C-alpha cells in the first residue's frame, strides 16, 4: 500500500476520510443503501480511498476506508484483505474518466424496485427533469466484482453519470462527492414518486 509522501498529502487524505464518513452517514439516513451493501470512494490525484469490504456506511469510521494507488498492480491489491470486491469497478472508472473524482455504488430501494418492474426512471416534475435528463443510463446484469462489470461501467459513466445496474443497484459518478450524492438522491426520490403514483393508479 502506498503511504503519504508529505504532510500536505497526509492532510488531504485525512480530510477525504472525514468527507467519506460524512457522506456515508447521509447516504444511510436517506436509505440509499443498507447494511454493508455498496461502496463509495474518492480520488485524490493518483490515489483512491474506498470503503472496506463488510463495513457499514451507517456506522462508518475513517479507518473503514482503504487507500491504494492508481499505479498499483491488481496482484498487489488482491493482497489487501480489506479491499472491497468492487475495487476494479472504482479503479477503472477513475482510470478511464479523468474528470471523475467520486464514485458511489449504492443499492437504493425504489430505484431497484422500478428496475425490477421494468419502468424507466422519469418524472413530469420540471426540477427532476432538469437534474436527471440525459444523465441516466442502464447496464445489463454482470457478475458483481467481475472484470466485465468494471469495464462496462467505466465506459458507460462517460455518457451517463448515473447508471442503473440490472439487479445490482446504481453507480453515481461526478466531479465531487456532493454532486454524486445529489444525483443519486434525486434519482431515488424520483423513483419513490413514481411508485407512489403507480399505487394511486396515476402511472
Secondary-structure map with pairings?
Elements: H1 7-29, E1 39-44, E2 47-51, E3 65-69, H2 74-77, H3 87-96, E4 102-106, H4 109-116, H5 126-132, E5 136-139, H6 147-156, E6 162-165, E7 170-174, H7 177-199
Parallel strand pairs: 5-6
Antiparallel strand pairs: 1-2, 1-4, 2-3, 4-7, 6-7
Account of the protein in words:
The structure is a single chain. The protein has 203 residues and is of the alpha+beta class. The chain has one domain: L-fuculose-1-phosphate Aldolase. Helices cover 42% and strands 17% of the residues. It contains seven helices and seven strands. It has helices spanning 7-29, 74-77, 87-96, 109-116, 126-132, 147-156, 177-199; strands spanning 39-44, 47-51, 65-69, 102-106, 136-139, 162-165, 170-174. A seven-stranded mixed beta sheet has the order 3-2-1-4-7-6-5, sandwiched between helices. Strand 1 and strand 2 (47-51) form a beta hairpin. Helix 3 runs parallel beside helix 6. The termini are far apart. 36% of the residues are buried. The mean pLDDT is 90.
In short:
The chain is an alpha+beta fold and 203 residues long. It has helices spanning 7-29, 74-77, 87-96, 109-116, 126-132, 147-156, 177-199; strands spanning 39-44, 47-51, 65-69, 102-106, 136-139, 162-165, 170-174. Helix content is 42%, strand content 17%.
CATH hierarchy: architecture: 3-Layer(aba) Sandwich
Number of domains: 1
What's the Cα radius of gyration? 17 Å
In N-to-C order, the SSE pattern is: HEEEHHEHHEHEEH
What's the total number of strands?
Answer: 7
Strand % is 15-25%
CATH class membership: Alpha Beta
- What coarse outline follows from CA principal-axis ratios? globular
What distance separates the N and C termini? 51 Å
CATH fold-type name? L-fuculose-1-phosphate Aldolase
What is the tally of helical segments?
7
Amino acid at each position: 500500500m502506498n503511504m503519504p509522501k508529505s504532510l500536505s498529502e497526509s492532510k488531504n487524505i485525512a480530510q477525504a476520510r472525514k468527507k467519506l464518513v460524512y457522506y456515508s452517514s447521509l447516504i444511510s439516513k436517506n436509505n440509499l443503501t443498507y447494511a454493508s451493501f455498496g461502496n463509495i470512494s474518492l480520488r485524490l490525484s493518483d490515489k483512491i480511498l474506498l470503503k472496506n469490504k463488510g463495513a457499514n456506511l451507517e456506522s462508518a469510521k475513517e479507518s473503514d476506508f482503504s487507500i491504494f494507488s492508481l499505479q498499483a498492480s491488481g496482484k498487489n491489491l488482491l493482497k489487501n484483505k480489506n479491499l472491497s470486491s468492487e475495487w476494479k469497478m472504482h479503479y477503472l472508472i477513475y482510470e478511464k474518466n479523468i474528470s471523475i473524482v467520486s464514485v458511489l455504488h449504492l443499492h437504493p430501494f425504489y430505484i431497484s424496485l422500478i428496475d425490477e418492474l421494468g419502468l424507466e426512471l422519469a418524472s413530469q416534475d420540471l426540477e427532476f427533469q432538469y437534474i436527471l435528463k440525459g444523465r441516466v443510463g442502464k447496464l445489463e446484469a454482470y457478475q458483481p466484482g467481475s472484470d466485465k462489470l468494471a469495464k462496462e461501467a467505466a465506459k458507460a459513466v462517460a455518457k451517463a453519470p448515473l447508471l442503473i445496474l440490472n439487479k445490482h443497484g446504481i453507480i453515481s459518478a461526478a466531479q465531487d462527492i456532493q454532486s454524486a450524492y445529489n444525483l443519486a438522491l434525486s434519482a431515488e426520490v424520483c423513483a419513490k414518486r413514481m411508485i407512489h403514483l403507480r399505487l394511486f393508479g396515476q402511472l
